[in-house]
Amino acid sequence: METNARGEVPYRPQIVVRRGSVLFLLEAIAEADADAKAEVLTRFLEQHSSELVLLVVAPNAVMERFPPEAYDEMYPEAEIPRVVRRILEQDTRGFVEPFEKGRRA
Prior knowledge:
Blueprint: E1 15-19, E2 22-28, H1 34-48, E3 53-58, H2 60-63, E4 73-76, H3 80-88, E5 103-104
Parallel strand pairs: 2-3, 3-4, 4-5
Antiparallel strand pairs: 1-2
């Protein structure tokens, strides 16, 4: 991973989807780079959390140890169709119910 001038790894989302006023960032996490990704995503969410929903898809081994402050919703890699449904079912006018960040879906 490349670092910026401050020695930090900048976050560049793998997939970005806008559904009305809600911006979804989808990140697939491989076991090999889970620790580095957790650090980058945590720093990113500290700065941008209220503006978006960060969806993480990962193998079970990563899900067990990935810190909750590094994502808004986490899904097992076998449940990609569920992730797609989650995005498609989002109300285009924004969040209808209070949205709780940092939870496993």
